[in-house]
Amino acid sequence: IIGNGIVGxxxxxxxxxxxxxxxxxxxxNISDFFGRINEWEMxxxxxxxxxxxxxxxxxxxxxxxxxKKMKQDCLIVDLSSEGVEGSKPQNLDTxxxxxxxxxxxxxxxxxxxxxxxxxxxxxxxxxxxxxxxITETENEVIRKASVVVNGNFYS
Length: 155
What we know:
Helices cover 35% and strands 13% of the residues. It is α/β, with parallel strands linked by helices. The strands form two sheets. The chain has a four-stranded mixed β-sheet with strand order 1-2-4-3, with no helix packed on it. The chain has a two-stranded antiparallel sheet with strand order 5-6. The longest helix has 25 residues, at 111-135. The mean pLDDT is 86.
């Protein structure tokens, strides 16, 4: 497991429930992971990349060069949906696909994407109403949703 945050905790709970042995790798010991890159049958990436942060995160954790050194048919489960070169969210029907000689699971429903998609959709839906409020433009939806107008209850 790469990453020790909330997503990593969820992965550990599932693996523990099924008595599956695992190792945890963080920025402090990731070199140990890469030193044994050809040993892994499954890699679970739970690390989110905070670009521009004080950690100076790389654009990818598992690059194509590392993938080429991995075991044939190694399964990369990309729960953070970032940090694995060649990993792209797939639809619900085919979440696992072949990339080079490994298999990658990356599904667009994974929890780390929900907040991003929800935020994008909510923003798109609300922008017209915020613009109407800011510019004080008449808007039927805002008028109907208003409870108090000019100090009086509105009905």
